[in-house]
Automatic annotation (TrEMBL):
Catalyzes the cross-linking of a glutamate residue and a tyrosine residue in the PqqA protein as part of the biosynthesis of pyrroloquinoline quinone (PQQ). This is PqqA peptide cyclase. Residues 7-222 form the Radical SAM core domain. GO terms for molecular function: 4 iron, 4 sulfur cluster binding; cyclase activity; iron ion binding; oxidoreductase activity; S-adenosyl-L-methionine binding. Pfam families: Radical_SAM (PF04055), SPASM (PF13186).
Amino acid sequence: MGMSEAIGPPFWLLAELTYRCPLHCAFCYNPVDFARHEEELSTEDWLRVLREARALGAVQCGFSGGEPLQRDDLEVLVAEAHRLGYYSNLITSGIGLNERRIRALKDAGLDHIQLSFQDSTREVNDFLSSTRTFDLKRKAAALIKSQNYPMVMNCVIHRLNIEHIERIIELAVELDADYLELANVQFYAWAQRNRAQLMPTHEQLQRAEAITQQWRERLGTRMKLLFVVPDYYESRPKKCMNGWGNVFLTVTPDGTALPCHTARMLPGLAFPNVREMNVADIWLRSEGFNRYRGTGWLPEPCRSCPEKEKDHGGCRCQAYMLTQDAGATDPVCDKSAHHELILQAREQATQPKLTEQPLIFRGPAESRRIDQPF
Ligand code: FES
């Protein structure tokens, strides 16, 4: 059997339509050098990507960014995704949503919207995004509800808002959310730049989890609460992206196809562009998607570990950022020879001289100044 016959289709197509965004979040997951990749695919290119990925077997399509509402053709792309039979999801800050656009998105067949907040208070929300957006987000929440979408709210949790967790849950209740994702910050891209300032202490995390559990019991089926644990406080790594080249196919604004948001920074790996190669060839045959697929490539101690099928050795990008070797065991694992790096980071979260440094906010000017790709 040839290699390509053993590879299943991607389940998710993540269409990162643009890196443009009115917000400047200090934990943004867009690459820190995004300003060097500003050229965007055309509408025609995206329509072709949608068709090719669907023909390959993708069934879910996420439109994200940057802020996907910055693209005037979003409704056209959503309509095509709907026609092709995808379940479509808009991942948005809500900025740019108005009566006209929410109706047009509904008419185009958009299935699902995820709205992000940075905090429960105007002050912290606006500080973390370096914009005055709190009130606009509340309006966006009302618009989403007005079209009978389930209200799916997301809030990235970190040291600067973790003490507000109860208020964040109350805000979700007030906005009549059906689902709240409390996504503890993961340290990639801009969040990695601000790691010491954003990492909560273990005590903060335990308290936040306990409060979330109390609210879960109180709310019952009225609102679903998801608490995503940060892997720096785990002893086993996550199966990143549910396995490299296994479920997710990300296409960046300039058309580079990646197995995750940040893989472009990994040295020595070629990732094709959808302008030059069709999606099936990229997924099945490109070197970039095959390098870390499955478990055959694993180094020790993963290779002989009984848990290797659970985590596939963890995250390639995290391994690279911390050890400069994308093929190493993710240092989150306490069997990794580099686990000490994680313990050091936890220790740094208790040192005020590090945690109180000013934040670096995401923005094109800052992005151009940065000389390292992570
Ligand atoms: Fe790239 Fe985990 S984020 S493999």
